Amino acid sequence: MLVCLGYPLLPTGSVVSTLVYNGLGLTAVVVTVLGVRRNRPPNPRSWYLFAGGMLTFVAADVVYEVSGLILGTHPYPYYDDALYGLAYPMLWIGLLGASRGRRNYDRPRDLAGAIDAAVIAVGVGLIYWVFIIQPTLTAHDTPMLTRLVSVAYPTFDVLTCTVVTRMLTRTGSRSPSVLLLAAGCLLNLGCDVAWTMTETFAEYSGGIINSGFLLGYVAWAGAALHPSVYPRHRPLNAAANDFGRGRLSLLAACTLLVPAVLFIQGVRRDEINWLAVGLGAVALFLLVLARLAGFVGQVREQSVKLEDLAMRDELTGLANRRMFELSVTDAVAAGEAQVCLLDLNGFKVVNDLYGHTIGDRLLVAVAGRLSGALREQDVAARMGGDEFAVLMPGAGVTEGDAVVRRLAASLREPISVGGHELLIAATFGIADTAATGDPIELLRRADVAMYAAKEGGSRQHRRFTADLDDRAGEAARLGVEMRMGLDTGQFRMVYQPIVALPHGRTKYVESLVRWQHPERGFISPADFIPVAEQNGLIVELGEWILRTACDQFVVWRDRHGADAPQQISVNVSARQLNEPGFVAVVADVLACTGMDAGHLIIEVTETAVFGGGTAVQAVNDLKDLGVRIALDDFGTGHSSLGLLQTVPVDVLKVDKSFVDNLTMAGRHAVIATALIQVSNGLGLDAVAEGVETAEQAAELYRLGYLLAQGYHFGRPVAEPDFRVSEDLAVPVR
Q: Which backbone phi and psi does 565 adopt, to 5 degrees?
């Protein structure tokens, strides 16, 4: 750069200036070759061809300078002009290949960029033709060879402009290396134009124009040296048809060159070249029309793709909720139709155990199985999460039930995903268009039927009937009244003692919630707890139970002293355990009440923690706080003994069903006996639930149980009697 900037200070036409000019040009050629060998671009042949064009340029410059020194003048035309003419095609071909990079056969050819380059070439070519080329060709006082050579240079300039435009408009090609190539070409083009504008080539004396040519050499060599000559990170989906402001302005300027030529010729009172102007206008019109046609075509194609994306589930490729609802609307309008909604059971467990990637792949596999079980005219959709839907247009009840059976059968075989054999069940709800022509109502009925089927367990399907609406409506009303009950204090707590055998002393109590409705009266927890689980109120209700029970425990401790229960247990649902802030809520309650964590027992069911994941993590976090964990109703859920090793259990509560027939002869005491042995072996406290008679209590004590709970020892009440009663003592034999 310093040499280029200092070159005009050298004596014009001297040997020193000649050596510097041609020496820098030759150095640029060598540096270009070294840069290609160092960076190893994906198209080295194009770069070597380009370097050959540079070398031919340098050779032409040398011939030009030597002829001037030897002959004392610069003949025109001469051999240097032939070398310049040979150099330009080498440079053009090399430039186009070097700026393209590695060919991507998956990407369509950039026709839009080629049209843009053609528009610019026609516009610039019209200017050159009208003001330079045609006047030169019609100058009959000049020899024909001289005129042809004189015309060749502006023609080379037009083609150079086209090549540069093509380089810069190619999709994703504006790397620093390409920009340096373009800068060198523009410098060379500008200097050529300046040279052409001199009165005669013989009077050309170099200076600043030569400095510009040298800067072009430097830019070309820099392009080969720059690391971006190897395009490692090139955008794959750049929009070739993109109408940016810069490109649009350039194309608009080129189309205005036709009226500009007419205006200039009119001002100068020249004879207007109607043929050239007319051909240029027609060519520009057709090119711009082709460009707009390509742009409109791309917009239409993208519109179709966007519409398809908007109607398809991105993960599975099935229809999404929007497309499914439209399809249901069309099917209902056409006549009879069946709609089936299905929900995968245990999908959250898969996500928790194996991660969301495996979960997503499972959804894709399920979508494939469902699609394979359908008729050709049926539509499968993913409604969101792990919920799918199927539309069966034109199907009756019998045919609809047959499709649902095929859907259920398709999921019975294990699905192999990521090296795991996964068995996933589904719950189906189906509804038809009988007595309704509303597509939204049809979907609602299928949804109601699906949730009704869930109450029956896995692999169940249920067809909508009118009584399901009554049940769903009752649940909704109960949910609203439960909300009001929480706000107005309709819920209360009762406590049932858990006693130590054989003397019957209360060791701790279990807290239980009761709802006394002002109009309905007493509502059983068996009725309102499932509704709270479904609508999410169990989270708020559970926190109220926890705070109330802990507050009551502190009151008893202060009031009764040594006679107060040592601990209090609170039942926690699966939904509470999966709530992100549940452990923090427990910690806050303990801190606010001043209650020691060791005095609190959290009771969970086998089902709540069987699947692992966030529920087991919450139990572990509670254990870290110092809270004790009880496994409630053991033996009635999944009954996995391995659960006792994976979950940090302190208390095992044996279900009432194993206590009821304990005093009868035969095999009725086998499970109760096995469970006390398991508890003792693992160091757990075993609590026998549902003890209703003294005989059951005596038999439990004989088997080894030291803790028991049931109506024999006390019903759930707001204020239990913690005094020891001789009536509750178990006779020791």
A: -60, 150
